[in-house]
């Protein structure tokens, strides 16, 4: 076996010296690499578009399936409670509708890898800051829901809302978590998209810029949330001191 391998090496060396190897082999490998990268980029683009469409459906279900029905039950919910539970979810829904419309315009259905979606993120970058208010309020929303769910009336009401809207089998707190998860997912999706975008692609610099923007948005949202939590802790401590005095 060792002798055969050596003979093979000698033959291969002889072929190279005699110029018998096909120079198109390297071109073929390069072509396959480009094709694979384009396919991976198409997969990422399709995943982004799919998740955006599903997300819009989630937001619509929250606004029409839950919030709209809650507003009809003044005997169960006050305006203050609804503001705590749902925050600015309607503002987020309106913003995302416009964002998705622009994404759809940039989406190349025939050749997804040619889609240029980076500019959409840059054009809408200021709008993503509305998530800050929602994320900062999310913990209070969970606490308010937890209190209400101790009453079976609210359990039955929210379940009836879900069934009436023909929503998937997820509790309301799961739906309300979706925007928090979504804003955190954008940098991950854009990083994956950039990974499979060639530097000579018309979308490359826009995707790179969009990634930097969305990383900054999520970073600042997390920082604001942390500061608010610290302020709340200080306020609770001051209140406890005053009560003690």
TrEMBL record:
Keywords: Cytoplasm, Guanine-nucleotide releasing factor
Limits of the DH domain: 40-224
GO cellular component: cytoplasm
Subcellular location per the Swiss-Prot or TrEMBL entry: Cytoplasm
Keyword match Cytoplasm: yes
GO molecular function, one term: guanyl-nucleotide exchange factor activity
Designated name of the protein: Rho guanine nucleotide exchange factor 9
Lineage: Eukaryota, Metazoa, Chordata, Craniata, Vertebrata
Endpoints of the signal sequence: none
Species per Swiss-Prot/TrEMBL record: Pterocles gutturalis
Record-linked Pfam families: RhoGEF
């Amino acid at each position: 076996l060792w002798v055969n391998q050596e003979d093979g090496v000698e033959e291969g060396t002889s072929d190279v010296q005699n110029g018998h190897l096909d120079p198109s082999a390297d071109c073929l490998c390069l072509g396959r690499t480009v094709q694979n990268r384009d396919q991976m980029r198409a997969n990422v683009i399709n995943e982004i578009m799919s998740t955006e469409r599903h997300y819009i459906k989630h937001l619509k279900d929250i606004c029409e399936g839950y919030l709209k029905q809650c507003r009809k039950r003044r005997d169960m919910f006050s305006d203050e409670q609804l503001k705590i539970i749902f925050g600015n979810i309607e503002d987020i829904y309106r913003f995302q509708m416009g964002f998705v419309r622009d994404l759809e315009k940039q989406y190349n259905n025939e050749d997804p890898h040619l889609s240029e979606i980076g500019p959409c993120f840059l054009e809408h970058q200021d709008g993503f800051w509305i998530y800050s208010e929602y994320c900062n309020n999310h913990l209070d929303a969970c606490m308010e829901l937890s209190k209400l769910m101790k009453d079976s009336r609210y359990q039955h009401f929210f379940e009836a809302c879900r069934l009436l809207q023909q929503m998937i089998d997820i509790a309301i707190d799961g739906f309300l978590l979706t925007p928090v998860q979504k804003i955190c997912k954008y940098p991950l999706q854009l990083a994956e998209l950039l990974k499979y975008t060639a530097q000579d692609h018309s979308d490359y610099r826009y995707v790179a810029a969009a990634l930097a923007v969305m990383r900054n948005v999520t970073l600042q949202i997390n920082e604001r949330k942390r500061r608010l939590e610290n302020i709340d802790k200080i306020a609770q401590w001051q209140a406890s001191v005053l009560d003690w005095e």
